[in-house]
């Protein structure tokens, strides 16, 4: 008999695909309609996030017993890909919220599920304050006990705080002088400052900037977990899950590239290098370009869907008590291998799309460049070169033969999994 709490079984009951599509398709269309204007004006996507909250998108993976949709992982990532097609900023804005839900589903702590999952089902979301600008200052945020013995005080600064400007709660990595601690604080609590100083050339609306904590009060029930940085590997799917969020977002960009390339060719009235009035849609060379764009998008989507199925299989194995360390190492390897291919394919598509129309395709009014910029920034978050080395090391020597690139994640390493920066490699 399984010893997994009933709440976790509820999480895989699934939702109806047709109902989910009918519920979210109009919202995705609405989000896509304003994506270029938001990009041009650097207008943060508050309205879009609100629409997603109200429709229950931010609670897709929350089990039905807590008020969510109970979507499976393949369902979740399929819809996340469609959201990435509408606006690639949105899946990244909600990335930590999605991982926060997944962390609760993996946990055996029913009290934490009962406390947090109904909040998310009600439309509240969680942002990230986990990473700092350099590895040398990692976890410099301090958590000090109140002298009265009631509660704690949080002080310090984090960067790459993706989603925090849009969130109701902030998941913070701190240190109490002895242990690493994860706490959750209200985003609007006294002493919290959220600063939109993200200066990346892509994913501009994710608000992945600074969050400061100046004597922010934390009650005992806002503490999530306490651990030693030296604790051994945890069996978890979170590494692969967070990477697959990026894969789905990149795949959404590939779909958007195909969509915009087709729209340009269908509406344009002049083909480069062809005198007189002509249409790109009738040009065999443009046919080849669009055919390649469609193939790249298909491949990226197929690969991402395959990883999503593997995540679901691992989740089901966990519920049945069949998952072990090898299960999660295999999952990590699959996600890393997928990353190498999807990144290259999406960047190729985002460059190739300009061949449908020559110089006219570079018009600022179309903002086709946003697809490459967004894909390039996403590709830098969990550096592919590091993951590729881990894959090679695994196949050559086994997962744990090289400590630097092994797949044995300590809790402190899992903090960095949740970040949206390349700080672990680039400093």
Automatic annotation (TrEMBL):
<dbReference type="GO" id="GO:0004497">
    <property type="term" value="F:monooxygenase activity"/>
</dbReference>
<dbReference type="Pfam" id="PF02770">
    <property type="entry name" value="Acyl-CoA_dh_M"/>
</dbReference>
<dbReference type="InterPro" id="IPR046373">
    <property type="entry name" value="Acyl-CoA_Oxase/DH_mid-dom_sf"/>
</dbReference>
<keyword id="KW-0560">Oxidoreductase</keyword>
<dbReference type="Pfam" id="PF02771">
    <property type="entry name" value="Acyl-CoA_dh_N"/>
</dbReference>
<dbReference type="InterPro" id="IPR037069">
    <property type="entry name" value="AcylCoA_DH/ox_N_sf"/>
</dbReference>
<dbReference type="GO" id="GO:0006552">
    <property type="term" value="P:L-leucine catabolic process"/>
</dbReference>
<comment type="pathway">
    <text>Sulfur metabolism; dibenzothiophene degradation.</text>
</comment>
<comment type="similarity">
    <text>Belongs to the DszC flavin monooxygenase family.</text>
</comment>
<keyword id="KW-0288">FMN</keyword>
<feature type="domain" description="Acyl-CoA dehydrogenase C-terminal">
    <location>
        <begin position="246"/>
        <end position="382"/>
    </location>
</feature>
<keyword id="KW-0503">Monooxygenase</keyword>
<dbReference type="GO" id="GO:0005737">
    <property type="term" value="C:cytoplasm"/>
</dbReference>
<keyword id="KW-0547">Nucleotide-binding</keyword>
<dbReference type="InterPro" id="IPR013107">
    <property type="entry name" value="Acyl-CoA_DH_C"/>
</dbReference>
<dbReference type="InterPro" id="IPR006091">
    <property type="entry name" value="Acyl-CoA_Oxase/DH_mid-dom"/>
</dbReference>
<protein>
    <recommendedName>
        <fullName>Dibenzothiophene monooxygenase</fullName>
        <ecNumber>1.14.14.21</ecNumber>
    </recommendedName>
</protein>
<dbReference type="GO" id="GO:0050660">
    <property type="term" value="F:flavin adenine dinucleotide binding"/>
</dbReference>
<dbReference type="Pfam" id="PF08028">
    <property type="entry name" value="Acyl-CoA_dh_2"/>
</dbReference>
<feature type="domain" description="Acyl-CoA oxidase/dehydrogenase middle">
    <location>
        <begin position="129"/>
        <end position="216"/>
    </location>
</feature>
<dbReference type="InterPro" id="IPR009100">
    <property type="entry name" value="AcylCoA_DH/oxidase_NM_dom_sf"/>
</dbReference>
<keyword id="KW-0285">Flavoprotein</keyword>
<dbReference type="GO" id="GO:0008470">
    <property type="term" value="F:3-methylbutanoyl-CoA dehydrogenase activity"/>
</dbReference>
<feature type="domain" description="Acyl-CoA dehydrogenase/oxidase N-terminal">
    <location>
        <begin position="32"/>
        <end position="124"/>
    </location>
</feature>
<dbReference type="InterPro" id="IPR036250">
    <property type="entry name" value="AcylCo_DH-like_C"/>
</dbReference>
<dbReference type="InterPro" id="IPR013786">
    <property type="entry name" value="AcylCoA_DH/ox_N"/>
</dbReference>
